[in-house]
Each structure stands twice: as C-alpha cells, then as structure tokens.
C-alpha cells in the first residue's frame, strides 16, 4: 500500500519541482536581463512599449499560468489516483 | 480636471465628506460581519481556522486581501510614477512567491497541520524545541511586518484624513482588535475578502478612467510619459543599480511568501487540500492583475498628475494613486480610494495579529507549556488574551517607530521568512532524515543571520546610522541567508540522525497525500 502513496507523492513532487524551476528561471531570467542587458531591455518594440514592459508583464502572466497548469494537473491526475487509492483502501 | 497638471491643488488631508462617509460605511459593515462571526466563533478551530469552512475561491480573495498591503498599492503606484519601469521589476518579485507557495507548501501544509506552520515542522519531531523556535521565527516576521504596517498606517491615514499620527495608529489598532478579538478568523477572512473586492474594484475603476483618456491604449499612455519625462521611464534605472541587490531581494520575495505565517495560516481555513490548491490559483490571478493595474496607475499619475505635483504632497511619492483619483473623479473618488487604503491596512494587520496570537497560544501555551493538553475553554481564552496583547504591542510599536524610515522592515520580514521559516518547512515536508536539531538550527540560524546581516547592511549602517560604509554589501541578505538556513538544517540533521523521526516519515507522507481523515 505505502509504495503507491510514495509513487503518488513522487509524481506530485516531480511536477512541483519542474514548475518551481520554470518560475525561478522565468523570474530570474527577467531580473538578469534587466540587470545586465539594460540597452536591449530599453528598446521599444512598439512606440511607448519597451521590451522590458512586455517581459515584466509576461513574468506576471507566466507565474499565474504556472499555477493554472499545476491546478489542472492536480485536479485531473492527482485527485483521480488519490480517489482510486482511497477506494482501494476501503475494500 | 485636465487643467495644468503641475499645480499641486489637492484637498488631500482635509476632512473629506465622501472619505468619512465611505469610512463609516466600511466600519459599520465590517463590524456587522464581526458581530455575525462572533456568534459562530465558539471553539479554537473557529477562532483560528474559521471552522475550515471557507471555500477555495473565497480563500483566494482572502489571501489576496491578506497580502496586498497599502504599501504595495500606494508604494508601487508611487514608485512607478517616479521611476516608471522600475516599479514593474518590484511588482514581479511580489508575485512570484505565490507559485512557490502552491507547488511546495499549500497542500502538505493543509493536510499536516492545524493552525500554524509549526504544526508541520514539528510533526514527527520533538514538540518543545521545534515549537519554540518556530514561534520565534513567526513572532519575528509578524513583529517586523506589523511595524511596517502600523507606521505606514499612521503616516497614510494622517496624510489622507488629516488626523494626527497617534490617533490614526490607535484607531487602526482598536478597530483591528475588535475584528480579531470577537470575530476571530471568520471575521478576519470576510474583512479580507471585502477589502480585496474594494481594492481590486477601486484599482480597476481608476485604470479604466486613466486608459479612457488615452484611447484605451497603454502604449499611448507610456508614449505620453516618455514624451514628457524621457524614454528613461521605459527602461531599467536605479532599482537595478546593483544587480546583486536586485537578485538578493528577488530571492527573499520569491521564497519569503512561502514562510509568512499569516499567509500560511489561511490554508487551514479551507476544508481540504484541493481547496487549498484552488485558493492559490485565485490569489495569484487576483494579485497579478492588481500589479498590472498598479503599473498603469503609476504611469497615469505620472502623466495626468505630474511627478512634481506628486512629490510636492509626499516626498516618497506614496500619494500618487490618491492624487490620480482626485484628478480623474474629484474629491468623491479621492474619498473612496482613501477609504479603500484604510480598509487595506486593517485587513493586513488583522491577519498578522491572528497569526501571532496562534503562535503564542497554540504553539507556546497549549503545545509547549500545557504539553498539548489544555481544556477547550482555556485554549480559546488564551487565544483571545494573546490577541489583546498583540494588538496593544502593535499600537505601541506604531507609536514608538513614529517618523522612522521603516521601509526596510518589510524586506527584513521577508528575509526572515525566506531564511528561517521556509527552509525548515520544506525540509520537514520533503526530507526523511530531517531531525529536531536540524529544524531548530535551520530556523535559528536563518533568523539570526538575517537580523545580523540586515543590521550590518547599507540600509541600517549607511542610511540610518550615517556610517561611511557597511560591513555587509547587500541591502537584503537573502542571497546568503537562505543557503545558510538550508545548510544549517541539513548539516545538523546529518551529524546527529534521529531514528524515531525517520521511522515516522512514512506516516507523515501518507497524511501529506491522503489528508488527516
């Protein structure tokens, strides 16, 4: 029984770590770009909107998307395996 | 209202009928909520966890209300109005902590604990040493955060309503105490939800009115700003003058959110891990859209009100959003925004006080002093006494730190949360070989190192004490102290293994996945 719980814990752990790394790279990629590539960041993609503004908005939207990805994975796959586990135990 | 923007003609700080009316409506409504909540609050579970009856979406709004402070609304809008793009760098940092909370903390926390994050860290470890250290970590974060909020409250409310600083601090303290003391977590939750709706609604209205003047095109607004103040407002500036400062602060913000006691406590108010997970999704979306709107508002204030007019009222630029409201909608909109800022402060302070009270009563009194065996009436009585004590402390701290520059206190709170609380929490959840000694070492080393390095930082030594140079170069120590917190926890655990804790990990893992039932 316990190895199934462990397998489920590991599956969650893998997704959690992968998404954490993705958000980490997204955010610190932005910070590094802002800190070390100031000229590129200052370029205006369309008049008034610099690359930095677009990237910053993308970090905010991307962070929110990452929570959406996790929640939809968990609602679908995690909860399904969990309820199968719970049912199996009750038998 | 489109007249010459450089004239600082404002009724800010004068008694404003709309502001006072909105203020009294808000107070009356929230006290009615408190009265209703008080009748439902009979046990500690209701007092600290709202009877686990809050839905995922409601908790998402409450989390947003707990997290979005007046400092982030007024401060970030002000920062954007003065330095443009730099404000966005700051905002992104305040948001990226939330995915970390979701991926690593929210669900295990909900399944393993009752009221505090110490429940999770002390699971399978020795209660007394872990609870005492976690309470130190909690109270340190709560105190620094409270100081920042109370001083901010005193300044802002004095400025907006024309009250004296001390009156403002006492009013905030007493109203907040009424919510928390009588209505506990149920009242606090609903005050936070109402505040989140008001703040987001107010920000959305201001954003709409601002963009309406620029053909609903942010690009046109930014272009206008660049025309007046130069293209520098669209580019990185002072905020990243020292990249290592920006990176260290970024680490504190990213991992600190997952160690803030008042945020973590909110996950106990929902019925299960699924609702905990959904609440972070809602909170992240709400807070993210709030920061995007704040960015527009900052630029709107820069163009419509004008940088000089903003700094003429408040040197820090904190009044950018209220001044923009006045320029767009006259004194009635100013009054509404001022009342919203007030509500914002109350909701955050209430959440902080409740989490501090939980550490004092649940961790220290019930679990350590009473060894987990205290009658229910006594638990609730001690919880309320701890709340009163913290409310008084909050008022006193607010008055004590009058006139001090306390902006660094929030950074300090995040540094302690990221370096003291977060490593212990993560290691206890995910690492079988974590020990009691490791938990204590991690929390104490992370907290103490944050305090020492902030004391030796340029913020304190140069800006506050006037020294020529600081002993430690970074303004925020997280770059050093987060690794230190992890290293202390790992090393001590490896040096002195704890067999009973390792054996109990399977049970912990099971409960982490399956829940308590």
Detailed description of the structure:
The complex is a heterodimer of chains A (91) and B (517). Chain A has 91 residues and is mainly alpha-helical. Chain A has one domain (16-86). Chain A is built from 3 helices and 2 strands. In chain A, strands 1-2 form a two-stranded antiparallel ribbon. In chain A, a hairpin with a 2-residue loop joins strand 1 and strand 2 (49-50). In chain A, helix 1 packs antiparallel against helix 3. Chain A is elongated, with a radius of gyration of 20 Å. Chain B is globular. The termini of chain B are far apart. The longest helix of chain B is centred in the middle third of the chain and has 50 residues, at 320-369. Chain B is built from 22 helices and no strands. In chain B, 78% of the residues lie in helices and 0% in strands. Chain B is mostly helical. Chain B has a domain at 45-405: Up-down Bundle (Sodium/glucose cotransporter). Chains A and B meet through helix 1, helix 2, strand 2 and helix 3 of A and helix 5, helix 6, helix 10, helix 11 and helix 13 of B.
The CATH C-level name of the domain at 45-405 in chain B is Mainly Alpha
Integer average pLDDT of chain B:
90
Overall 3D shape of chain B: globular
- Indicate the CATH architecture of the domain at 45-405 in chain B: Up-down Bundle
Largest sheet data of chain B: none
The assigned structural class of chain A equals mainly alpha
Number of strands of chain A: 2
* CATH fold title of the domain at 45-405 in chain B: Sodium/glucose cotransporter
Low-pLDDT windows of residues of chain B: 1-7
Strand order of the largest sheet of chain A: 1-2
Spans of chain A of at least 5 consecutive residues whose pLDDT stays below 50 are none
Q: Mean of the pLDDT scores of chain A?
A: 90
Structural class of chain B: mainly alpha
Assign a percent range to the helix content of chain A.
Answer: over 70%
N- and C-termini, Cα separation of chain A: 12 Å
* Range of strand content of chain B: under 5%
CATH superfamily membership of the domain at 45-405 in chain B, which one? Sodium/glucose cotransporter
Largest sheet: number of strands, sense, barrel closure of chain A: 2 strands, antiparallel
């Amino acid at each position: 029984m316990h190895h199934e719980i462990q397998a489920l814990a590991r599956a969650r752990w893998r997704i959690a770590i992968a998404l954490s790394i993705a958000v980490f790279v997204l955010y610190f990629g932005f910070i590094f770009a802002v800190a070390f590539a100031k000229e590129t960041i200052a370029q205006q993609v369309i008049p008034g909107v610099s690359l930095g503004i677009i990237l910053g908005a993308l970090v905010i939207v991307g962070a929110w998307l990452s929570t959406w990805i996790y929640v939809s994975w968990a609602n679908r796959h995690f909860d399904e395996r969990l309820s199968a586990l719970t049912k199996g135990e009750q038998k | 209202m489109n007249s010459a923007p450089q004239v600082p003609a404002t009724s800010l700080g004068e008694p404003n009928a709309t502001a006072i009316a909105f203020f009294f409506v808000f107070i009356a409504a929230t006290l009615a909520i408190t009265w209703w909540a008080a009748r439902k609050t009979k046990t500690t579970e209701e007092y600290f966890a709202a009877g686990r009856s809050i839905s995922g979406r409601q908790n998402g709004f409450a989390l947003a209300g707990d997290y979005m402070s007046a400092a982030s609304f007024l401060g970030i809008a002000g920062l954007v109005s003065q330095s443009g793009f730099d404000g966005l760098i700051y905002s992104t940092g305040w948001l990226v902590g939330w995915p970390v909370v979701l991926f690593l903390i929210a669900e295990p926390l909900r399944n393993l604990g009752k009221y505090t994050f110490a429940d999770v860290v002390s699971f399978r470890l020795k209660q007394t040493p872990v609870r005492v250290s976690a309470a130190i970590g909690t109270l340190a974060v709560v105190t620094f955060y409270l100081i920042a909020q109370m001083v901010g409250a005193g300044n802002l409310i004095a400025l907006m309503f024309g009250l004296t600083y001390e009156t403002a601090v006492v009013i905030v303290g007493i109203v907040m105490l009424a919510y928390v003391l009588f209505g506990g977590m149920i009242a606090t939750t609903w005050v936070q939800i109402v505040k989140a709706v008001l703040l987001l609604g107010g920000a959305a209205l201001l954003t709409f009115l601002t963009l309406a003047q620029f053909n609903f095109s942010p690009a046109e607004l930014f272009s206008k700003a660049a025309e007046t103040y130069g293209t520098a407002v669209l580019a990185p500036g002072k905020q990243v003058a020292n990249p290592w400062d920006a990176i260290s602060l970024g680490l504190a913000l990213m991992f600190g959110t997952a160690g803030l006691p008042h945020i973590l406590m909110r996950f106990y108010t929902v019925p299960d891990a699924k609702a905990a997970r959904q609440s972070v999704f809602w909170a992240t979306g709400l807070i993210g859209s709030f920061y995007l709107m704040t960015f527009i508002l900052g630029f709107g204030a820069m163009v419509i009100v004008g940088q000089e007019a903003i700094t003429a009222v408040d040197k820090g630029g904190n009044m950018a959003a209220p001044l923009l409201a006045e320029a767009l909608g006259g004194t009635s909109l100013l009054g509404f925004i001022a009342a919203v800022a007030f509500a914002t402060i109350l909701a955050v302070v209430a959440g902080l006080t409740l989490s501090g009270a939980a550490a004092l009563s649940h961790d220290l009194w019930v679990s350590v002093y009473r060894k987990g065996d205290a009658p229910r009436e006594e638990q609730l009585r001690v919880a309320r006494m701890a709340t009163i004590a913290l409310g008084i402390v909050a008022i006193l701290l607010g008055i004590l730190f009058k006139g001090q520059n306390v902006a660094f206190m929030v950074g300090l709170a995040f540094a302690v949360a990221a370096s003291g609380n977060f490593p212990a929490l993560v290691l206890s959840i995910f690492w079988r070989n974590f020990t009691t000694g490791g938990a204590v070492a991690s929390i104490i080393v992370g907290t103490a190192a944050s305090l020492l390095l902030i004391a030796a930082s340029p913020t304190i030594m140069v800006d506050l004490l006037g020294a020529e140079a600081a002993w430690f170069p970074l303004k925020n120590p997280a770059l050093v102290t987060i690794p230190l917190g992890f290293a202390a926890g790992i090393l001590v655990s490896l040096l002195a293994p704890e067999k009973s804790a390792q054996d109990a990990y399977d049970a912990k893992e099971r409960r982490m996945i399956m829940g308590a039932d």
